[in-house]
């Protein structure tokens, strides 16, 4: 794959991820977008609080907060959902951050996260990554911090997916033998808050 085709595949993956967000987070809720970075996600019928450790662009329909993943300035039960896209691989120990996310969410809250699979091209292409994740590592980290994994699947893009109109189907396509292994460089995690508390 060339750099151009790799970039196009990544863009197709991001568009597919937006489709996941729209379907998973209920309208009218309050969503914490942890690690918003340079992209703020917003929806008119949902309150989205974009959080990053550095200031980012402001989206007219969203709040921007500068905070660290280990020290979130929110009260318990503040959010009905959490988006943590491409965040956990930057943390030496993701379990305390996931436990803090558990604390600031309401009972029944959903967490949607993406993390790189434990394959070199996914992990080490970004020098700020400190880890990749096996499926077992994802489930263990979530369980130790009060989250129950509902679904765990490969996500990514491939050249031409956008032009062919396949973006809404990328998650399904990644289940086809061979496609997910080659093009699914990240895990897409859907987890639900365990209401008994972390480890419960």
Helix/sheet category? alpha/beta
Helical percentage: 25-40%
Low-confidence spans: 1-13
Order of helices and strands: HEEEEHEHHEHHE
At the fold tier of CATH, the topology name is Rossmann fold
Write out the strand line-up for the largest beta sheet, numbering strands in chain order.
3-2-1-4-5-7-6
Overall pLDDT level:
81
Number of H- or I-type helical stretches: 6
Beginning-to-end CA distance, first to last residue: 45 Å
> How much strand?
25-35%
Largest sheet: number of strands, sense, barrel closure:
7 strands, mixed
Bulk shape: globular
The oligomeric state of the chains shown is single chain
Count of distinct strands: 7
Structural commentary:
This protein has 200 residues and is α/β, with parallel strands linked by helices. The protein has a single domain, classed as Rossmann fold (3-Layer(aba) Sandwich). Helices cover 28% and strands 26% of the residues. Strand 4 (79-85), helix 2 (94-103) and strand 5 form a beta-alpha-beta unit. The longest helix has 22 residues, at 3-24. The radius of gyration is 16 Å and the shape is globular. The N and C termini lie far apart (45 Å). The relative contact order is 0.17. Residues 1-13 have low confidence and may be disordered.
């Amino acid at each position: 794959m060339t750099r151009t085709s790799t970039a196009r595949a990544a863009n197709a993956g991001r568009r597919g991820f937006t489709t996941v967000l729209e379907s998973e987070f209920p309208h009218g809720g309050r969503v914490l977008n942890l690690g918003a970075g340079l992209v703020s996600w917003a929806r008119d019928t949902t309150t989205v609080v974009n959080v990053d450790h550095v200031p980012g662009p402001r989206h007219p329909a969203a709040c921007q907060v500068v905070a660290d993943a280990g020290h979130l300035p929110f009260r318990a039960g503040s959010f009905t959902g959490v988006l943590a896209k491409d965040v956990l691989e930057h943390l030496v120990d993701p379990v305390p951050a996931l436990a803090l996310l558990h604390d600031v969410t309401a009972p029944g809250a959903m967490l949607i996260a993406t993390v790189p699979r434990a394959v070199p091209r996914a992990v080490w292409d970004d020098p700020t990554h400190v880890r990749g994740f096996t499926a077992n590592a994802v489930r263990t980290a979530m369980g130790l911090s009060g989250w129950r994994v509902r679904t765990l699947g490969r996500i990514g893009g491939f050249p031409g997916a956008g032009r062919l109109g396949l973006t809404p189907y990328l998650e399904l396509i990644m289940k086809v033998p061979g496609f997910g292994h080659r093009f699914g460089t990240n895990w897409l995690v859907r987890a639900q808050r365990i209401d008994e508390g972390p480890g419960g």
